[in-house]
Amino acid sequence: MDILKKNPLKRAILEKRAAFGIYVEEPSPTIVELAALAGLDFVRLDWCHGPFSPATLMNQVTAAESRGITPLVRLECNEQDVGLALELGAMGVIIPGVSDASAAGRAVDAVKFAPVGKRGLFSAARKTGFGTVSSSEFTRWTNEEVLLGIQIETLEAIENLDEILAVEGIDIVQSGRGDLSNALGVPGEKTHPRVLEAEEKIFGKALSRGLAISPQLDPYAPGFEEEVASWVEKGAYLISLGIDQAIIKKAFQGIVKKTSHLPR
Description:
Blueprint: H1 8-15, E1 19-24, H2 29-37, E2 42-46, H3 54-67, E3 70-74, H4 79-88, E4 92-95, H5 101-111, H6 135-145, E5 147-152, H7 155-159, H8 161-165, E6 172-175, H9 177-183, H10 193-208, E7 212-213, H11 224-234, E8 238-243, H12 244-258
Parallel strand pairs: 1-2, 1-8, 2-3, 3-4, 4-5, 5-6, 6-7
Helix pairs in contact: 2-3, 4-5
């Protein structure tokens, strides 16, 4: 039984192949299954903004495993929550709001085992097959396959960018256009030139250090297909294509629009 599998997203990064996913705010395994059946490569389960619990997270991770889509979890850098998400089977985590090297180091410590980090070990975790896999194999596999992403979302983070990106153990760098727009004095204007300029700086420096970058794109924005192609050309191989709730809402709106000419 192959309990500890290679991380498809890490393979995509190493082989310079594009992988596409969505953010998931709804604590529903069905959403995860539908994303997989639609052909997406990963889901980012957003514990920061969605009404998640450990039980709903486990159900979604199980759904992801059953359908062959890679589960990532976005959550605050609480070492207990991070450890639990990974013990349940997440193949990586995204830590938001990393503003200095110390915060980046805490993220690494929470995700990676020694000698890279300081994560605590539970030898009978779900991800080990409830103890089927040895602790030594589990810790080695984790440090090789589990991905750690960080989000650069503040002016402080941009000022400290070089020091943050120098921290060993980071795999993926994301921006956060919403928080960046707020920090730059243009709240909500995610495509404002200041926001895009800041994002280009973040991603450019990350790529120069050999780190993966992962932009979040709006699938309903004008020129979406061209934007995706442009990011892949720039070296972005993990790309998020929207949020489950917004995608569902747009689908509903499209159906309603087709019937809007009828009396009701």
